[in-house]
Amino acid sequence: MKLNRIVVVGGSIAALTAAETLRIEGFDGSITVLSDEKVPPYTRVPLSKSALAGRELEDDLTLPAMSDDVDLRLHTRAEGLDVHRRLVHTKEGSVPFDGLVIATGARARTVGHRRGGERVLRDIEHSRSLRADLATASSVLVVGGGFLGMEIASTCRELGKDVTVVDREPPLERLLGPLVGARIRDAARMAGVRIRVAAGDVELVGGKTPSGARIANDEVLEADMVVSAVGDLPNIEWLLGSGLRLNGGVHVDAWCRARPNIVAAGDVAVQAGPDGSSRRTPSWTNAIEQARAAAQALLRAENAAPYRPSHYYWTEQFGLDVKMVGPPGSDGTPTISEGSLDCPPALLEWHTSGTAYRVVALNHGIRPAKLKRLVPAHHSRSVLR
Ligand SMILES: Cc1cc2nc3c(=O)[nH]c(=O)nc-3n(C[C@H](O)[C@H](O)[C@H](O)COP(=O)(O)OP(=O)(O)OC[C@H]3O[C@@H](n4cnc5c(N)ncnc54)[C@H](O)[C@@H]3O)c2cc1C
Questions:
Q1: Which of 303, 336, 361 is the last residue of a domain?
Q2: Which residue has its alpha carbon closest to ligand 1 atom 16?
Q3: Core-most of 237, 249, 279, 368, by most CB within 10 Å?
Q4: DSSP calls for 148-212
Q5: Is the pLDDT at 385 greater than 80, yes or no?
């Protein structure tokens, strides 16, 4: 079927990349982008790092503008999808499409403070208000020790705050394994961060705005400011009842298709690995690569290449620049192939049957493209769990 009208729903990197890829691939029909944000697409990556620290201005976060011939409609939330009549419903009316790109990403998960008012960091407004309130806070409790939680902790230390991180597991261990996780936690402690590993659930306490967290034995960790960084949830509510398979995200095939004329990409998309299990891959690089693949598949179906994620991730915290290729995990024992973990630069490799399935570079100048070549793509896919 010839596509004349493509609608992209989402206002961030996956939506922008999909729209631009459609044009690069020669699509000359209409492209309408529906974004519920008030501002044009921007990068979220610095929101926990340089922007929160005040080293980067909000204006500098704006991503390159979409082409003039893309109809970007800000402040326009998709509220429903009719797959058969090919309509996206919004408050302003229904938008018809021949092809649809779903790129509605994710929002911050919350611990579930019973009075609401929980502070999270997902968008530019969160970052702005967090930064403003940090000016008068002297202590910060970060609930969640993943990449985001530890980045927030690092920036808050940089701003001179008294910082505690609490998690049910040692921070970063599940993502980077015991060795690298411990190395980064050491750097955090050296920087003055307290790390608490809580047995069992963490419950936020206080008035509307939490003032602390209760952990095991009724101990309460108090702080002027509490920030939850406990993962994300895909934005799929607008698709309920559409008939698309929604279970922890929009399920797509190897070409990122939910239907022949509907693709999904970025933090919202769930794709099966070769072992048959399905997962989202919430990361900046995945959003870009998957959006390109999805746009190509929308135009060329199986003649386009199936999506092969590079599994490239990075984080910056406590003076450490961490680049990783391969699925995150705590399995296996790495060998240090270059440098020293105690005094980076260091390059670590995880092998099975003589082939690397994960590499981590710490303060190492290696370019991402070269790092990716160290992990054969088919191999990094085959160990996905
Ligand atoms: C603070 C922070 C720091 C990060 N740092 C890193 C990092 O260092 N490295 C890394 O790899 N990744 C990082 N990430 C993750 C990365 O930013 C995300 O993986 C990426 O933004 C995903 O892009 P996306 O376009 O799929 O989704 P999102 O960025 O979530 O964008 C979804 C867009 O869709 C819009 N939308 C949602 N629902 C609707 C609707 N119904 N109608 C219309 N529009 C809708 C949203 O408002 C948003 O504009 C970070 C994320 C955050 C929050």
A1: 303
A2: 284
A3: 249
A4: HHHHHHHHHHHTT-EEEEEESS-TTHHHHHHHHHHHHHHHHHHTT-EEEE-SS--EEEESSSEEE
A5: no
Region 154-178: mean pLDDT is 97
- CA torsion 346-284-146-181 (nearest 10°) is -10
Residue 379, burial from CB neighbour count under 10 angstroms (0-12, 13-18, 19+): middle
Rounding to the nearest 10 degrees, give the CA dihedral for residues 175, 178, 179, 182: 90
CA pair distance 22, 81, nearest whole angstrom: 21
Is residue 189 domain-shared with residue 46, that is, in the same domain?
no
Give the pocket of ligand 1 (CB within 6 Å). Answer: 9-15, 34-37, 44-45, 47-48, 77-78, 103-106, 121-122, 148, 235, 238, 266-267, 282-285, 287, 313-315
Domain range for 216: 110-228
Residues 35 and 177 in one domain: no
User: To the nearest whole percent, how much of the chain has pLDDT over 70?
Assistant: 97
Residue 240 lies in a domain: yes
Task: Using alpha carbons, select from 33, 26, 43 the residue that is nearest to residue 66.
Answer: 33
